[in-house]
Amino acid sequence: MANNLLKGKKGIIFGALDENSIAWKTALKVHEEGGKIVLTNAPIAMRLGEINKLAETVGAEIIPADATSMKDLENLFQKSLELLNGKIDFVLHSIGMSPNVRKAKAYGDLNYEWFHKTLDISAMSFHRVMQTAEKLDTMNEWGSVIALSYIAAQRTYPDYSDMGNAKALLESIARSYGYRFAKSKKVRVNTISQSPTITRAGTGITGFDAFLDYADKLSPLGNASAEDCANYIVVMFSDLTRMVTMQNLMHDGGFSTSGITDEIVEMLYEIKSE
Length: 274
Known about the structure:
- By secondary structure, this protein is an alpha/beta fold.
- The protein has helices spanning about 20-30, 45-50, 50-60, 70-85, 100, 110-135, 160-185, 210-220, 225-235, 260-274; strands spanning about 10-15, 35-40, 60, 90-95, 140-150, 190-195, 250.
- Strands 3-2-1-4-5-6-7 form a 7-stranded parallel sheet, sandwiched between helices.
- The radius of gyration is 19 Å and the shape is globular.
């Protein structure tokens, strides 16, 4: 049941690719809670997705933008101000891609040009988005900016490769820009570290199905779904969380603070007895 948590609020959602993506589900939840949005994604990603269907459902305009292009971002924010009739209250950065992961390059054999692309797309773009928003003075006071992260920023997951480095940089940017934005506009900046989730990006990682099951067994509440993450994002966009900033917020069913669980012990005993 909707509570009008975002009634009168306006914002931009990056990265809605298909109905499995967290950004897609967030757009639906924002609409349900009374918010107005502009949808955006890189032109190449938009050709692979179904963003027009989402835009029709939530009554949103679509503005293509490559988040690594300052020109595209400036156009995005300027047009969003016009379409939304004023400054915005929230931004969701749901962007991440690694050519090295896609090409199954081992961490000790990275293509450094691709590594740079990983960092640019998955982390530096977050800085570009906020720098553009600040320079064009597009954010209302007490606004909220969220980026999606993953626990590989703190722990090593071999098949996650250079994306772990990108997520660490992403979280560092959130702290540094969070301080700046809080001082200048009382805008809060946070990252949400989500459970492994069945999205197009997630399923592209080698061994993803096995890790999804492992994470579920190590999480007392089980893996957090994309729908649950969308709910959390809406709360972070709302006025209920006005004093939360510069944080990496774990949304993982308890995975990040569980040493072991009964389910993992049982699984290990079963493997040992085979």
